[in-house]
Amino acid sequence: MPKARLTPASVTEAAAALVDEVGFDNLSMGLLAERLGIKTPSLYKHVASQADLAHRIAILAMAEAGDTIRDAIQGRSGSDALAAGAQAMRTYVREHPGRYAAANAARPTGTDDPFVPASERVLASWAAMLSGYGLDPGQEIHAMRTLRSVVHGFATLEAAGGFQIDASVDESFTWLVNFIDQGLRAGVTSASAVAR
Amino acid sequence: MPKARLTPASVTEAAAALVDEVGFDNLSMGLLAERLGIKTPSLYKHVASQADLAHRIAILAMAEAGDTIRDAIQGRSGSDALAAGAQAMRTYVREHPGRYAAANAARPTGTDDPFVPASERVLASWAAMLSGYGLDPGQEIHAMRTLRSVVHGFATLEAAGGFQIDASVDESFTWLVNFIDQGLRAGVTSASAVAR
DNA sequence: GCCTCTAGCTAATCGCATTAGCTGCACTGG
DNA sequence: CCAGTGCAGCTAATGCGATTAGCTAGAGGC
C-alpha cells in the first residue's frame, strides 16, 4: 500500500471532499480517519482539533469560491459579469455544499487569519461585478449587500432543499439574476436622469 | 420551591429562549436542564431526544414567524405589505437567531409533521405580499423564490455578523426592500420583455 | 551503519447524549 | 380519609466521539 504522506493540506482536502458527501454537521474525526486509512488519533498529528479542521475547510472553500468567481467574471462586465459571477457562485455551492456550510459557520480567529483575505477576495469580486453599473458611491454598499444576500440566500435555500415545488430552480435563478440586473440598470438610469 | 409543572411545550419554550441566548449549536441537554432546575435525564420525560427538541423549537419558530409576518401585513397591500412583512421577518430573526437557526436546520419528518403546515403558512404570507403586484402567473414562483432568498439571505448574513463595514445595516435593508419593490412594480409593466 | 525525528498506533480520559431502574408525591376512586 | 396508581424527577450506568498520553518503528540525514 502506497505511503500517501499526509499533510495538513491533504487532510483538509480529504475532509472537504468528505463534508461535501456527508454534510458538514456529519463530519467526524473517525469517519475522516477511516477515509484516509489511519486511526482517529493520528489525525491530530496534522490538525489541532476538529474545530481547526473545520476552519481549514472554510479557508479552502473561501479561496476556491473566490477563484471560481474571479475566473467567471474575467473579461466580462455589466450584466454579463453579474450573470456569470452569480452562476459560478451558485454552482460552487451546489457542487460543494459541505465546504460552503463550513465557510458560513467560520468566524475569523484574528487579523492574521487567512480566512480574512480569502473572504475579502470574494467580496472584491462582488464589488467588481457591481462596478460596471456605475452606481452612486453611497448606494454601492447597499447594492453589494443586496447582491450578496440574494445569491447567498438562494444558494443556501437550494442546498437545504427549500424549494419544494417542481418548478425549475435553474429557471428561477436565471429570473432572479435578471431581476437584479434590471433593477441595477434602472437605478443607474434614474439616478443619472435626476442628475441630468 | 414552586412546582413549575413542566410540559413538552414549556420545555420547548425554555429551550427556544436558551438557543436565542447561546446559539443553536451550543444547545445541550445539560444546559437546558440546569435552566429548568432539573437533572439532565429528567428532560427525557418530556422530549424524546435532543433531535426531537430541536425539531420542536423549529416548529415553534416557524409558527411564531408565520404569525408575526401575517400580523405585519394585516391591512396592508403592495409596497406597504412588502415592507412590513420583510421588516417583520428580519426583526424576528434578529430577536430570535437561535430559533431561526433551528428552523433552518429542520427537515420535515413526514406528511403529518406540524412543521409542514407551519412553513406553509409562512409561504402563504410571502405569496400574499406578492399578490398585490399583479404578476404574471408564470413569474410568481420565481418572484416568490427571489423574495424568500433575499430576505433569508440578508437575515442570515446579518445574524452571522457577515456585514462588517460600519454602514448602517438598517439602511441597507430598507434599500434592499425598496429595490425589490421597484423591480416588482417595473416587472408588471415589462413582464413580457424577459427574453431580452 | 547509527541517530533522530515524527507519523501512526494503542490505551486511557472526558464530556455529553441517552438508557435503566428506583422513588416519592399527587391525584383518583372508594 | 385512605389505599392504589401513574408519572416527574433522581441516581447510576452505558456508549460514542473528541482528545490526550505515551510508545514504536521506519525514513532521511550524518
Would you summarize the structure shown here?
Chain A is mostly helical and 196 residues long.
Strand and helix map with partners:
The structure is a homodimer of 196-residue chains.
Chain A: H1 8-22, H2 29-36, H3 50-73, H4 78-95, H5 97-105, H6 115-131, H7 137-159, H8 169-195
The structure holds a DNA duplex (30 and 30 nucleotides).
How would you describe what is shown here?
The structure is a homodimer of 196-residue chains. With 196 residues, the first copy, chain A, is mainly alpha-helical. Chain A has helices at residues 8-22, 29-36, 50-73, 78-95, 97-105, 115-131, 137-159, 169-195. The model of chain A is unreliable at 191-196 (pLDDT under 50). Chains A and B meet through helix 7 and helix 8 of A and helix 7 and helix 8 of B. Chain A binds a DNA duplex (30 and 30 nucleotides) through residues 3, 5-6, 28-30, 38-42, 44-46, 49-50.
User: Largest interface: which pair?
Assistant: A-B, 35 and 36 residues
Quaternary state of this entry equals: homodimer
| Strand composition percent of chain A | under 5%
In helices, the fraction of residues of chain A equals over 70%
In total, the number of strands of chain A is: 0
Helix and strand sequence of chain A: HHHHHHHH
Count helical runs of chain A: 8
Rg measurement of chain A, Å: 20 Å
| Class from secondary-structure proportions of chain A | mainly alpha
The averaged pLDDT of chain A comes out at: 93
What's the main sheet of chain A like? none
Shape of chain A: elongated
